[in-house]
Amino acid sequence: MITISLCMIVKNEETALPRCLASVASAVDQIIIVDTGSTDNTISTAQPFKANIHTFQWIDDFSAARNYAFSLADQEYILWLDADDVLKEEDLAKLITLKETLNPMIDSVTMNYNLAFDEYGNTISSLRRNRLVKRSNQFRWIGQVHEYLEVSGQIHDSDISVTHCGDERDSDRNLHLYLKKWSRQEPFSPRDTYYFANELLDHHMHEMAVLYYRKFLDQGLGWVEDNIAACGKVADCYHALGEPDKEMQFTLKSFEYASPRPEFCCRLGFHFLEKNDPRTSLYWYLQAVQMAPPADHWAIRNNSCSTWLPHLQLCVCYDRLGEHELAYQHNELARKYRPEDKAILANKLYLESILQVQTG
């Protein structure tokens, strides 16, 4: 059985940290907490978990802090989490089983990272990350902001999920770090350019976001999944700016990088539905539900676009075309994902009344 060090960097997490540690403590052999400048009771909340607590002078560099935390570990493998992450009960059980059975030749274990949920508990946004790595390999974190763990060797894709329970307390933090870097005229890597644009979009600075997304795409040096995502985000910016032609231009530009994804098929379906062209809209929503998910499981996925959303929109399309039986079938498929959705339930009653008249 392998042994595990949990390594975390924290600041002002007195509420979230105990929840995180309680969800994972029974699966790890060592807990290392690196505090980067808390002014609340974060440190004291970690003490009941017998954590090894250290401090690190914050230098506006997340990788530096994470690498320091990793350097303090002394178990065979290192698990990393943020304070607003948790392992649900079933995932904790899976981690304990993995700990007992993992081949020690494995260099890194990936886990799902569930980022956002709808009101019915469905995961609507997720990706995969390297979460558990062999300490002896001395893998390093890269990047001042939106850092990533650079790994190599034998990778095991587990079915364990980490659940993000974050809030918006630090919503300005990363933008400020990038703006500092920008004001000092320090060079931006392609990754920096992309994530800076993301921060600008999140803060509704649409025109400046477009500038940096286009700069990122024009460089031609980005990861293909970031290129595809950037097209969608530029389309979002142009939608907010009221420029539908440019929105369509960047929706279609995503096809330059890979075959159509469900998210972009749904964009096109909505575009034509707004133009009162349900037949063309129908085509694109059908593509969204029929296509296989992308092979690259590292990219963020909007799961709604391959589950309930296109079925709900197909219901609308078929209803407008007078094909009420098909509209009802797709509404029922949407209802499997969102059984209490008021719009879906209203559709059900409406379509049942029509079908009853037609068959009566």
From TrEMBL:
<dbReference type="GO" id="GO:0016740">
    <property type="term" value="F:transferase activity"/>
</dbReference>
<dbReference type="InterPro" id="IPR001173">
    <property type="entry name" value="Glyco_trans_2-like"/>
</dbReference>
<dbReference type="Pfam" id="PF00535">
    <property type="entry name" value="Glycos_transf_2"/>
</dbReference>
<dbReference type="InterPro" id="IPR029044">
    <property type="entry name" value="Nucleotide-diphossugar_trans"/>
</dbReference>
<protein>
    <submittedName>
        <fullName>Glycosyltransferase</fullName>
    </submittedName>
</protein>
<keyword id="KW-0808">Transferase</keyword>
<feature type="domain" description="Glycosyltransferase 2-like">
    <location>
        <begin position="5"/>
        <end position="134"/>
    </location>
</feature>
<dbReference type="InterPro" id="IPR011990">
    <property type="entry name" value="TPR-like_helical_dom_sf"/>
</dbReference>
